[in-house]
Design a protein that fits this description.
Structural class: mainly alpha
Helix content: 55-70%
Largest sheet: none
Number of strands: 0
Number of helices: 4
Order of helices and strands: HHHH
Length: about 70
């Protein structure tokens, strides 16, 4: 939960601006925008695949080592 306490003689507009920045840092605004519209299951998969870190596998590591020893 995000809480914003007033600092001294801070105006309500300045507090609201700080609140919005905190929400953006937490990722709340991104989640709200994403949930606002229906997302197809295929689009969900695609989005999750984009955010997942990629793991690269070495190509043909077993066959190339046997060829180099000949």
């Amino acid at each position: 939960m995000i809480k914003v306490k007033s600092r001294g003689n801070e105006t309500a507009e300045q507090m609201l601006r700080r609140f919005k920045k905190m929400c953006e840092k937490e990722g709340l605004t991104k989640d709200i925008k994403r949930i606002a519209y229906y997302e197809k299951p295929s689009e969900k998969k695609r989005r999750r695949a984009r955010t997942k870190p990629r793991v690269f596998k070495p190509m043909g590591s077993s066959s190339s080592s046997s060829n180099s020893s000949r």
